[in-house]
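Section 4.2 – Deliverable D4.2 (structural model, holo form)

The reporting period included a commitment to supply a predicted holo structure for the target in complex with magnesium ion. Inputs used:
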Amino acid sequence: MGFFDKLKKITTNLFSGFSEADEAFFEELEETLILADLGMDTALEAVEQLRARVRREKLHDQEEVKAALRDVLVEMMDVGDTAMDLSTQPSVVLFIGVNGVGKTTSIGKIGSRLKKEGKRVLFCAGDTFRAAAADQLEIWAQRAECELVRQHEGADPGAVLFDALQAAKARHVDVVLCDTAGRLHNKANLMAELAKLSKIIDRECPGCARETLLVLDATTGQNGLIQARTFKETAGLTGIILTKLDGTAKGGIVIAIARELGVPVKFAGVGEGLEDLKPFDARDYVEAII
Ligand SMILES: Nc1nc2c(ncn2[C@@H]2O[C@H](COP(=O)(O)OP(=O)(O)O)[C@@H](O)[C@H]2O)c(=O)[nH]1
Ligand SMILES: [Mg+2]
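Output (C-alpha cells):
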C-alpha cells in the first residue's frame, strides 16, 4: 500500500462515465475540482491548462486525458524545493499554525524520521501556554527517542528557545524542532513573537540553516488557505505541512496552497501514528487522488 492510499479519490465518478474530453466533461471536471477544495481560481486554471493540452496534443482516450490532468496538477505544485535545509549543526525548524492542526504531532513524527536517519534531534517546548502542551511533546520525545528542553507553564517561549539552543550547541545536536503556541493568529502578536524567536536564533546560532513550517489541517479546506495567507504575510514561511489528509475528500487544498502561495508542501500527514507522515511527493499524491 502506498502512503497516500488513505486519500480519497476525487475523480472516480468523473471518469466512470467518460466518453470524450468535450465541454460537458470539462465542466464536470471543474466542479469536481472545486468540490475537492482546489478553490475556484486553481480549479479554473487547471481546467484551462488541460483543455489546451488536450487540443494541442489531440488527446482522446480516458487514460491519455487522465495522465495529462495528473501532469497539469503536478506542475502546479512545483513551486520550490520540498526538502528541508538542515545543512548546519544545529539547524532550527519552527512549527507554527493555529491550535489543533497537528504541530506537536508532526514534530514527533519528523523527529522520529530524522533520528532514524542518524541525526541527533532536540525538541523545544515553545508552546508554554498550557502545561499539557509540553507534557504532550515530552511523550513524543520519548516515543521518537529525541531530546527535550522544556520549562514551566507560562514561561517565555523565547527563554525556552534560548535554553534549547544552548543545549543544542553544547551537545552537538543536529536539528532543533521548536513547537509554538497556536494562539498567535492575531497578526500583530504573531509577528512580534516570531520576530523575537528569530532574533534569538540569529544571536545564538548566526548563519544557521532554518525552516519555518506552517502546519495546516487539510480537513479545514479553504479556511486553511485563508490561515496560510495570514501566516505567509507575517512569518516568512519556507514550507507547509499538511496534516489529516487521511479520509478527507478535500485533499485538493494542497494544490491550491502551493499554487496560490508559492510555498512548497514539504510534508504530509495521514494519521496519528509515528510513521504517518512523509516528505511530500506531488506525483504520488496526484496518482492517489486522480
Ligand atoms: N487523522 C489524523 N490526525 C492527526 C494528524 N496529525 C495530527 N492529528 C491529530 O490532531 C490532533 C491535534 O494534534 P496536535 O499535534 O496536538 O496539534 P497542535 O495543537 O497543532 O499541536 C491530535 O489528536 C492528533 O492526533 C494526521 O495527519 N491525521
Ligand atoms: Mg501542540
